[in-house]
Design goal:
heterodimer, A: alpha/beta, Rossmann fold, five-stranded parallel β-sheet, four-stranded mixed β-sheet, 5 helices, 11 strands, B: alpha/beta, Fumarate Reductase Iron-sulfur Protein, Chain B, domain 2, 3 domains, six-stranded parallel β-sheet, 22 helices, 10 strands
Chain lengths: 193, 453
């Protein structure tokens, strides 16, 4: 008997013949009067920042706010200041020197400052973690209250990768002292356009 | 050596013990603020508990559904009945691809299986990449907490460790400086890795993918750079639907550290371009726990660590005193279920205060389980002669009311007159580190009678 059968048989032997129904997940939950404001404070609490772009273009925003960056890559089509093509190489390793990645997110979640990033056009998901700084572009209409609405908006019918990113990478593994910038980006800005 | 003996070593350093206690209580308080911020908190716990109950009761069905859907997404699925088989599968996958350099993110399951020493014996370089885990790996220690692996260490300890292994500046123990040093050291390991291994927070039956939650981004870096990604998953990590995550992602980080969500909640449903992804489904004693109505709820655990942070015994005795892979209330019940003889002292590392059960996001009645395990310890004759005799005598006395009254009377008369050298002699194990309360003049029975008159 294979281990697969052995495990499944042992489970079958040990489980009851009936069980409770799966509960609904869309329970009554918090709604924010001002989702933008909540998103902003949530993201600030985890070390990130949110900006609503007004008259400027994204190019101008980057030119004004990221003066010391040399290597810029982007998965966002309207952005034109990339210094190299994120998808050019067959392996993600050449992206290790990226100073700024301008990436696209599908939507933002007010309760926790997270954005949903799933982009089949981006060849190397490692980009989100290799870049020193992240600038995440989200359509300002696309913001939800909580994870309940968030999971209504996503699916994995096809294979792929998607991640909720909430702020920059961080750790508190040394004496509970919060340090922003662990293995991934040391800075994360969400730009609503 | 059992929990009391190891705990005695920990509390010998009184200042450090109090420091540890406070550090954990601080995390517990952050959890409270996060939980109280949501009116629906108790509803979230209810739903989480019901999802887990349903899933464990139909676990064979959901595991097979997971396997089918994972395979459709090009993920290779393996089954391991025990730790040995798990470790052999990992090694076989690595050797088949000629991978000698492995980066690992946090996985208590691989700690449970003692994967690292096995791989190292077989010539594989294993690097733990979570900062806390890297610290304890360099020190050749086990994690002392499932979420905060190096919580037992002070920054000076970490500074000394990094001085030795990462050549950081002498006596520099600034957490930011040390974290940056680790980042540089581990970035190189990530870029040169030939394979990665991650744990699994949730395996989604409906979609055949796995979810991994981290703050540091180490799981994602590992699983996105080398061509080979192995995910090790205990059978109880299965959830039926993608949308179940709306419940669990709201509970997990709030319960763990008081954050609204981890920095990264990553859904892996494919390998990277040109790569391979493997999921190893591991039993290692879990399917036996399902058979036991008293303990099967322990499989609801989502490994947030809330029960550990709140436990008054854990906070004052440290993770290493448990001697089991997972410390604290959840570890004590899992350890006792797995091997009662070896872990016979763990159900007693508990005050039965029930704080663990009250903070558990999936509503495991942890203290009830520990209470039940104590009965199993007694029934198996594992209690130890001294405790056993004391309890036998106490039972006999309490069964005889007149005798109990007399014993009480004698105790009230004699005990206050005894010198400390006798009262707190070695025979009185209760009196270790504890002061007896002031004895009253009259018994409760006497007071009650007097009042009724």
């Amino acid at each position: 008997m294979s281990s697969r059968e052995e495990i499944l048989n042992n489970i079958k032997k040990n489980i009851p013949s009936s069980t409770i129904d799966l509960p609904e997940t869309d329970i009554p939950h918090i709604k924010y009067e001002n989702k933008n404001k909540k998103f902003s404070t949530s993201l600030a609490s985890v070390g990130g920042n949110a900006v609503w772009l007004e008259d400027n273009s994204i190019d101008e925003f980057v030119a004004n706010n990221y003066k010391d960056v040399n290597v810029i890559v982007s998965t966002y089509k309207e952005f034109t200041l990339s210094t190299k093509d994120a998808n050019k190489s067959n392996t993600p390793h050449p992206l290790a020197n990226v100073d700024l990645a301008v990436i696209k997110a599908e939507f933002a979640v007010a309760e926790n400052g997270a954005v949903w990033v799933k982009n089949p056009d981006n060849r190397h998901r490692a980009l989100y973690f290799l870049a020193t700084q992240l600038l995440i572009i989200v359509d300002k209409e696309n913001i939800v209250d909580t994870m309940h609405e968030a999971y209504e908006k996503i699916d994995f019918n096809k294979k792929g990768y998607g991640t909720f990113i909430s702020g920059p990478s961080k750790t508190a593994d040394i004496e509970q002292a919060l340090v922003i910038g662990a293995h991934g980006p040391t800075n994360a800005c969400v730009l609503f356009v | 050596m059992g929990h009391p003996e190891k705990a005695a070593k920990f509390i010998a350093d009184n200042e450090r013990m109090h420091w540890h206690d406070k550090a954990l209580w601080f995390v517990r308080q952050k959890r409270d603020i996060a939980a109280h911020g949501l009116d629906e908190w108790e509803e979230l716990r209810r739903v989480a508990s019901e999802i887990k109950t349903h899933t464990i009761d139909k676990l064979d069905f959901y595991l097979e559904e997971f396997e089918k859907n994972a395979k459709e997404k090009g993920i290779q699925v393996h089954w391991a009945k025990d730790a040995k088989e798990h470790n052999e599968i990992v090694l076989k996958i690595l050797l088949a691809r000629g991978a000698k350099k492995l980066v690992k993110s946090k996985s208590m399951l691989t700690e449970e299986c003692h994967l690292n020493p096995f791989l190292e014996e077989n010539g594989i370089e294993v690097i733990d990449t979570d900062l806390g885990e890297r610290i304890v790996q360099l020190r050749d220690e086990a994690p002392s907490h499932i979420v905060l692996p190096a919580i037992h260490l002070k920054k000076e300890d970490v500074g000394k460790t990094f001085e030795k292994f990462l050549k950081t500046e002498k006596d520099n123990c600034d957490p930011t400086y040390l974290t940056r040093a680790a980042r540089k050291h581990l970035r190189e390991k990530f870029l040169n890795a030939e394979a990665s291994l991650t744990g699994v927070n949730f395996g989604i039956a409906q979609t055949g993918g796995v979810v991994v939650c981290t703050n540091e981004g180490n799981a994602d870096l590992g699983a996105s750079l080398p061509k080979l990604h192995i995910a090790s998953m205990g059978i109880e990590k299965i959830i039926p639907r993608l949308k179940d995550l709306s419940i669990f992602t709201r509970l997990l980080a709030r319960s763990a550290t008081g954050q609204p969500i981890t920095s990264y909640t990553s859904h892996f449903h494919a390998p990277i371009e040109g790569g391979e992804m493997h999921v190893i489904i591991v039993d290692n004693g879990r399917s036996d726990i399902i058979a036991n109505e008293d303990f099967k709820q322990s499989l609801h655990c989502i490994r947030c660590g809330a029960c550990i942070n709140t436990c008054p015994v854990y906070r004052r005795s440290g993770g290493h005193s448990y001697g089991y892979t997972i410390p604290g209330p959840i570890g004590s019940t899992l350890g006792a279920s797995k091997d009662l003889r070896t872990n016979k002292t763990l159900p007693f590392a508990c005050t039965l205060c029930a704080s663990c059960s009250n903070v558990c996001p999936s509503k495991i009645k942890l203290h009830n389980q520990l209470y039940k395990h104590r009965q199993s310890v007694v029934a198996a004759g594992l209690l130890g002669a001294k405790k056993h005799t004391i309890l036998k005598v106490a039972t006999w006395v309490m069964k005889h009311p007149a005798l109990l009254d007399f014993t009480g009377l004698m105790a009230r008369k004699i005990v206050p007159k005894l010198p400390r050298s006798i009262l707190y002699s070695k025979a009185n194990i209760w009196g270790k580190e504890r002061e007896l309360p002031k004895f009253p003049e009259n018994s409760f029975k006497e007071l009650y009678k007097a009042r009724k008159k």
